[in-house]
């Protein structure tokens, strides 16, 4: 059984930082794409950042470029989202997700962790 579990959410003031973690368990195999998404009530889930297990290539939403960094620790299958210079509009439920490279849809999802940024 493959599972993902986020941690690290919380409340911060604008300009502050948070580091989200996504711990994974189960047999993923090595050909993985890992990502962070966020969602606010009444809006669609938005992709924030993606990292590929092969080569470590990363992609970011324009709204977070230069402020957020996605990374992974291959030794323990944990990946992270370092969020700096947080803005009130970053407030959302953040989810980690993973899928195999040859699959279109994101297969595995965490339960989410709330990030609240106050002005």
How would you describe this protein?
There is one protein chain. With 119 residues, this protein is an all-beta fold. It is built from no helices and 11 strands. It has strands at 3-7, 10-13, 18-25, 32-39, 46-52, 58-60, 68-73, 78-83, 92-100, 108-109, 113-118. The strands form 2 sheets. Strands 2, 4, 5, 6, 9, 10 and 11 form a 7-stranded mixed sheet that branches. The N and C termini lie far apart (41 Å). The mean pLDDT is 93.
What's a concise summary of this model?
This protein is an all-beta fold and 119 residues long.
What order do the helices and strands come in, and which of them pair?
Layout: E1 3-7, E2 10-13, E3 18-25, E4 32-39, E5 46-52, E6 58-60, E7 68-73, E8 78-83, E9 92-100, E10 108-109, E11 113-118
Parallel strand pairs: 2-11
Antiparallel strand pairs: 1-3, 3-8, 4-5, 4-9, 5-6, 7-8, 9-10, 9-11
